[in-house]
UniProtKB/TrEMBL annotation:
Assigned keywords, A-Z: Glycoprotein, Hydrolase, Iron, Membrane, Metal-binding, Signal, Transmembrane, Transmembrane helix, Zinc
Purple acid phosphatase C-terminal domain location: 396-455
Residue ranges constituting the Calcineurin-like phosphoesterase domain according to the UniProt record: 172-370
Native organism taxonomy: Eukaryota, Viridiplantae, Streptophyta, Embryophyta, Tracheophyta
Protein name (Swiss-Prot/TrEMBL): Purple acid phosphatase
Cofactor(s) named in the record: Zn(2+); Fe cation
EC number: 3.1.3.2
Highest taxon listed in the record's lineage: Eukaryota
Record organism: Durio zibethinus
Protein family per UniProt: Belongs to the metallophosphoesterase superfamily. Purple acid phosphatase family.
Length: 478
């Protein structure tokens, strides 16, 4: 289509020409012009190929060779402060050993930790032997090697522990959501890996494998997904959030235990934050305090998640961890015509707390596109006063939807018009983001679309910390 190729060519030119050409394209092409009191709706237009899953024989799904070789290796933080790691993997032929051998780069002395394995059935699928082993008492800021598959075919990986928790510790988080296992998913992961900003830990906002899109929720697609992401998740922690595609509730085939495959395969350190379920928990990492919530578990008054969050928020010490980050799957502020208002009931419950405790940023997924909000809140409404419009609020978080990992369901392209005032930037392209904490006052945030080179920032902003430097950072205020 000429419109597509024109727009594509435009993006290859310098930003000066881009702006001029963008103006022309806007004037010529859009007859319902999108000017509003809102932010920017990108005019970037990508090729609209269909999103398709990578076939089973793809390189990314290859099973490691050798009898009972460990596969699907992944790690996550294993305690509250970053001195432990949970190592998880699957063996297919027999249980084999749940031992992890590990040693730091400096001391060649090998240590040993014992884990456990579990299995589960889902309809007519039987899982492999899923091992989880926590290795603790690690030194901060240290490279460790580790080996799994003791007794059969051993495989070796490595990771670097985070620095000790403290207010000025720089740290770089990657943001990925709704990844799936399509060719676009592979492009997203490659862009994350090749990004010169070098993310050290992935904050994953839910919807992992999309196995539930297959007949009978073909759980073999949970296995392929874990083999696909091993090339990153075995070497740096991925911090997990549950999405709707983790529920796997299928009464029509007798599967009525929500989150069964997800909770067997992905362990998180929820007990370390006094949570009673793996679906909501918190960790500290470097200068960040990260709270993970579950959009698909009860969150109303008196529920376990509600009680936990109410007790959790006052525990956050911004003098120790200046950056307060919340992860959830279903966004509260979204202006796409997909999943519109699905996050509303949770917003009503928790938004006053987020404003009171000055959350810096909320990352969500679910909508398969990208969007960044202004700092807004909508907490004045009390049923009878009619005050139900989002207002600019410097105590409120920025809300970012990063559900654009590239799964089989394709992009969310239809947006509500005009762009609402709370929406600062939105674009329907696949990509990932980087939240790069510099010190207690500044973090640089950037969003990277898959169609650009690895270093290109398609959207970016400086975050000013809400506790240490609560100054308006939106471009319109400067
Ligand atoms: C996935 O991406 C990797 C790294 O870019 C590449 O080596 C591999 O061939 C890709 N696989 C598929 C199926 O696209
Ligand atoms: C599970 O059942 C479906 C439908 O009957 C069938 O197509 C599939 O091959 C079965 N898979 C296994 C592993 O038995
Ligand atoms: C914090 O980082 C920002 C951005 O790099 C820098 O401009 C600022 O001077 C730093 N603050 C301190 C106290 O070093
Ligand atoms: Fe989702």
């Amino acid at each position: 289509m000429t419109y597509n190729s024109l727009a594509l060519k435009i993006t290859l030119m310098g930003s000066f020409y881009f702006c001029m050409a963008a103006f022309i394209v806007l004037t010529l092409v859009f007859n319902s012009v999108v000017f509003s009191n809102g932010g920017k709706t990108s005019i970037y237009v990508r090729k609209m190929e269909k999103t398709v899953d990578m076939p089973l024989e793809s390189d990314v799904f290859r099973v490691p060779s050798g009898y009972n070789a460990p596969q699907q290796v992944h790690i996550t933080q294993g305690d509250h402060v970053g001195k432990a790691v949970i190592v998880s993997w699957v063996t297919e032929d027999e249980p084999g050993s749940s031992t992890v051998l590990y040693w730091s780069e400096n001391s060649k002395h090998k240590k040993k930790a014992e884990g456990q394995f579990t299995t589960y059935k889902f309809y007519n699928y039987t899982s492999g032997f899923i091992h989880h082993c926590t290795i603790g008492n690690l030194e901060h800021n240290t490279k460790y090697y580790y080996v799994v598959g003791v007794g059969h075919n051993m495989r070796k990986f490595w990771f670097t522990t985070p620095p000790k928790v403290g207010p000025d510790v720089p740290y770089t988080f990657g943001l990925i959501g709704d990844l799936g296992q399509t060719f676009d998913s592979n492009s997203t992961l490659t862009h994350y890996e090749q990004n010169p900003k070098k993310g050290q830990t992935v904050l994953f906002v839910g919807d992992l494998s999309y196995a539930d899109n297959y007949p009978y929720h073909d759980n073999g697609r949970w296995d392929t997904w874990a083999r696909f992401v091993e090339r990153s998740a075995a070497y740096q922690p991925w911090i997990w959030t549950a999405g709707n595609h983790e529920i796997d509730f299928a009464p029509e085939i007798g599967e009525t235990t929500p989150f069964k495959p997800y909770t067997h395969r992905y362990h998180v350190p929820y007990r370390a934050s006094k949570s009673t379920a793996p679906l909501w928990y918190s960790i500290k990492r470097a200068s960040a305090y990260i709270i993970v919530l579950s959009s698909y578990s009860a969150y109303g008054k008196y529920t376990p998640q509600n009680q936990w969050l109410e007790q959790e928020l006052p525990k956050v010490n911004r003098r120790e961890t200046p950056w307060l980050i919340v992860l959830m799957h279903s966004p509260w502020y979204n202006s796409y015509n997909y999943h519109y208002m699905e996050g509303e009931t949770m917003r009503v419950m928790y938004e006053p707390w987020f404003v009171r405790y000055k959350v810096d940023v909320v990352f969500a997924g679910h909508v398969h596109a990208y969007e960044r909000s202004e700092r807004v809140s909508n907490i004045a409404y009390n049923i009878i006063n009619g005050m139900c419009t989002p207002v600019k609020d410097q105590s409120a978080p920025v809300y970012i939807t990063i559900g654009d990992g590239g799964n089989i369901e394709g992009l969310a392209t239809s947006m509500s018009e005009p762009q609402p005032a709370y929406s600062a930037y939105r674009e329907a392209s696949f990509g990932h983001a980087i939240f790069d904490i510099k010190n207690r006052t500044h973090a640089h945030y950037s969003w990277h679309r898959n169609h650009d080179g690895f270093a290109v920032e398609a959207d970016s902003m400086w975050f000013f910390n809400r506790f240490w430097h609560p100054v308006d950072e939106s471009p319109t205020s400067q």
